[in-house]
Amino acid sequence: MKVNLNDFGIVLAVIGATLAALIPGIASAKAVSKGGIAGAGVITEDPSLFGKVLILQLLPGTQGIYGLLIAFITFSQIGVLGGSGDISFAKGLLYFAACMPMIIVGYSSAIRQSNASIASMGVVAKKPDQFGKAMIFPAMVETYAILALLISMLAVNGISGLNI
Amino acid sequence: MALLQMQRIYIYALNKDRKKILDLLQRREVVEVRSMLKEDSVFRRTEESLSVQDFEKNIAIAGEALTILDTYEKEDKSLLSALKGRKELPLEVFDSFSEKYDSVLDKAKRIIYLSKSIAEAKAEILKLQTQIEILTPWVRLDIPLNFKGTKYTSSFIGALPRTWTLEELYEQLAEYMPLDINIVSSSKEQTCIFILCTKDNKDRVFETLRGMDFILPSITTDISPAEQLSKLKDQFELSELNINAAVEEIMSYVKDREDLYFLQDYDAMRIEKYDVIGQLLQSNNVFIVTGFIPKKDGEAIKDELTSSFDLVVELTEPRKKDDVPILYKNNGFSEPLEGTVSSYSPPGKGEMDPTMVMSLFYYLLFGLMLSDAGYGFLIAIGCGLALFKFRGTMERSMKNTLKMYMYCGIATVFWGIVFGSYFGDIFDIVGSTFFEVTDLPVIPPLWFFPVEKPMLMLTFSMGFGIVHLLTGLAMSGYQMAMKKDYKGIIYDVGLWFVLLISGIVLLLSMKMVTDILGINVTMSDRVIDIATILFGLSAIAIILTNGRESKNPFKRILKGLYALYGISGYLSDVLSYSRLLALGLATGVIGSVINQMAAMTAGGLLGPIIFTIIVIMGHALNLGINALGAYVHTNRLQYVEFFGKFYEGGGSVFKPFKINTKYFKVKENAK
User: Do A65 and B639 touch (CB under 8 A)?
Assistant: First the structure.
């Protein structure tokens, strides 16, 4: 049997896309659950803080969504969601590489962000009126997830135009 | 874009008018009481913490009573009741409440006592129930359970596991005749027996029974089980009656709920008042109120007080050292964002109120990040309707929050139309799935689709960021002008403006940069030359001047170099605005994903229904998550990038002596 290397282009691209949905998703689930555990503790003390604590809990949940976004854009570019799946080996590898920033940064930033979120919940529990400041700390971490999203998104978009 | 001017106020009045004067000040809500004078041999402060503790305890009692009432009859609180605000009551109701106070407090205590007695009675019923359960198998026995036998006989009353017949029992104990064995009751689990034997056989009978796992009943009675049972049942009924009576009594207090809420408010007001009294300087006949008052209210309060009481009011300008409280004054467009500024930090001494300038960018940034006309429409309409429905009664803070989101929603609609996003691409999807429309897009964007030209969108985002940052820098210059720091305006603001703008021109003249951004810029060589010269000159000038607070020339140059290195900060600040693209695209793309998923199910008879359900659920989720993201990151851009250029904060917000109630407020007749 003769193996055509170019048949594996789409395989690599799909692996990249699914990992982008998978890994940041796992991290976000972990991060949100950590936040939920800490948040539940705050709520037992003062149930009126629910809204604020919920926001802090949800902040590290966005990485999973960004990952999903990259996965979706990749799928639609490579023709998995309708269209032709004719992709060269090199292009498949490029798609795989393009997903990498979101996969890796998405994973690690979600976990780190939940640590910041939990610390901010401590602030909110003691000084509910300082919520505005407390919210910024986890938001700072998210910047890097957004940058990774941006690069992955631009890269995936750009690769479709390459002629290889 | 302003803060209200404050004045110091001193009120010297007689102790006999104290209650009335303080009540008036509390209702007017214009004076923040601060201690400004020192104690001396005549004027002293008094300690009021004991009565405050009492009030706090009473608030807790009323609160507990209300929770109890709630468990018996749920108060119908709709989601919207939070929007309604406090109920207005005339002043007389507030004044006359002191007569009712004790009776209301007694009612609260009575409710707590009743709920306690209900809990006790319920525990008693549980105890009685287990006793009744134990006794029921013995009900046919007509002697007491603790019957031990007569002079010549011994009796055994107890239970054996599983079912036993009379024959089986006689078989087991045959050698100890004469015997009388009675089976009182029998079931699968146990057989209750009564055995009478002669006294000399007592021990051996007992041994045999023990071998059969004989156990004594877990309760004993002096009267026959039947009698005992009827007694227990009487007690049971009595407890139930008690519970019913108590519940009924509690229910009769449901109508007093308002009074209990009122009691909490009344005591909250008194706590506030006693806190203030604790700060007053008092002699035997005179007391002094000191504090801050907005200049616009000063004269009015002075006239009102002097016309009705014997007192002296003195208004003076704040001293240099005073930590003057901040009261914002903004128009309806910017006012909703005062809270956002305060939650960063209220303006410090000599700083301007950034709310007005910030509000312009705030709404636009939020809109750019959510950038969907459909979502924006929902937010704006929802907030607008709530604002309209409760326009008369809504609390100010709630009103401001809703107004803020309404403006954010309007900005979102604007950007949504510019970038052609309506619930993702709902019109295209519905059109092509159900109506076979081929002329897509149904509604073309006013400008372009960010998904199709992401680099252009990135350029636009960063351009928007540059405008935002330069505005921040300009604000810094304005602030220096107010402080008359003219050197600072030239060195720290002017030079940076020249440096940054010429830097941008130079960047745009490079082919590499324009290629990356995908834009075409044509500039004459002349412009580029001028920009190069200006860039070089301003950089040198910054190195020379930005370390000017150091005398040592060597140190000065080093500090200047470090200041110039701050240009990398501008670079990362501008890049930070790429989140506008990322979050904006995220909303649009997730919206389209939802629409596509829904379109996949659209075939068949049930198709349109499933389609609608998926669309509604999906977009609700997308709206929630992305509105949260837009809110958080708008705040971040304002706090970190924008405020970082000019704003420090550190002031304290004006906290007037006021009626800080939760449920009711005073309806003023005339002011």
Answer: no
- pLDDT at position A1 over 70: no
Decide if B1-35+279-344 and B146-216 have a common fold: yes
How many C-beta neighbours within 10 Å does residue B159 have? 22
Q: Of B108-122, B528-542, B656-670, which gets the smallest average pLDDT?
A: B656-670
A160: which residues sit within 8 A by CB, 6+ positions away?
Answer: A77
Query: In sequence order, what are the beta bridge partners of B290?
Result: B10
Quick one: tokens of B273?
Answer: 């008042």
Instruction: Give start and end residues of each alpha helix (H) in B485-606.
Output: 486-488, 495-509, 511-517, 525-545, 553-565, 567-576, 578-600
Q: Which pLDDT score is estimated for B668?
A: 63
B312 φ, ψ to 5°?
-120, 130
B326-364 per-position pLDDT tens digit:
888 888 888 999 888 888 888 888 788 899 999 999 999
Q: Residue B659 — φ and ψ, nearest 5°?
A: -90, 95
Whole-number pLDDT of residue B450: 86
CB B620, CB B626: distance < 8 Å: no
Q: Give me the residue spans of the domains in chain B.
A: 1-35+279-344, 146-216, 355-642
Token readout for B479 is 């602030």
Residues from chain A contacting residue B625 (CB–CB below 8 Å):
58, 61-62, 65
Q: Does A73 touch chain B (CB under 8 A)?
A: yes
Whether A150 and B590 lie within 8 Å, measured CB to CB: no
Domains of chain A: 5-159 (1.20.120.610)
Q: Is the CB of A139 less than 8 angstroms away from the CB of B632? A: yes
Give domain B1-35+279-344's CATH architecture: 2-Layer Sandwich (3.30)
Contact B125, B241 (CB under 8 A): no
Kindly report, residue by residue over B604-659, the tens digit of the pLDDT: 788 888 889 999 999 999 999 899 889 988 998 998 889 988 888 888 888 888 88
For residues B286 and B15, the answer to whether their CB atoms sit within 8 Å is: yes
Q: Per the CB < 8 Å rule, is B586 touching A66?
A: yes
- Min distance B422 CA to chain A CA atoms (Å): 18
DSSP 8-state code for residue B425: B
**Residue B463, Cβ density class (10 Å: 0-12 exposed, 13-18 middle, ≥19 buried):** middle
Mutation site for B-interface testing, chosen from A75, A76, A143 by largest number of B Cβ within 10 Å: A143
pTM for the complete prediction?
0.79
B146-216 CATH choice from 3.40.50.150, 3.40.50.1460, 3.90.1150.10, 3.30.70.2750: 3.30.70.2750
With an 8 Å Cβ cutoff, is A156 touching chain B?
Answer: no
Q: Cβ of A14 under 8 Å from any chain B Cβ?
A: no
Q: How many CA atoms lie within 13 A of A7 on its CB side?
A: 3
Of A62, A136, A143, the CB nearest to B635: A136
* Confidence at residue B364, expressed as pLDDT on a 0 to 100 scale: 94
**Nearest CB neighbour to A153, from listed B585, B596, B632:** B585
Taking an 8 Å cut-off on Cβ atoms, the answer to whether B625 and A61 are in contact is yes
End-to-end CA distance of chain B: give it in Å, rounded: 28
Contact state of B578 with A150 under an 8 Å Cβ cutoff: yes
Distance of CA B563 to the CA centre of its chain: 42
**pLDDT given at position B670:** 42
Q: Are B250 and B115 in contact (CB under 8 A)?
A: yes
SS3 B395: coil
Predicted local distance difference test score (pLDDT) of residue A34? 94
pLDDT the model gives residue A40: 93
B399-432 confidence digits (pLDDT tens): 999 999 999 999 999 999 999 999 988 888 888 8
Q: Give ipTM to 2 decimals.
A: 0.74
CB of B666 closer than 8 Å to CB of B264: no
Residues B279/B45, Cβ–Cβ less than 8 Å: yes
The DSSP string of B288-302 is EEEEEEEHHHHHHHH
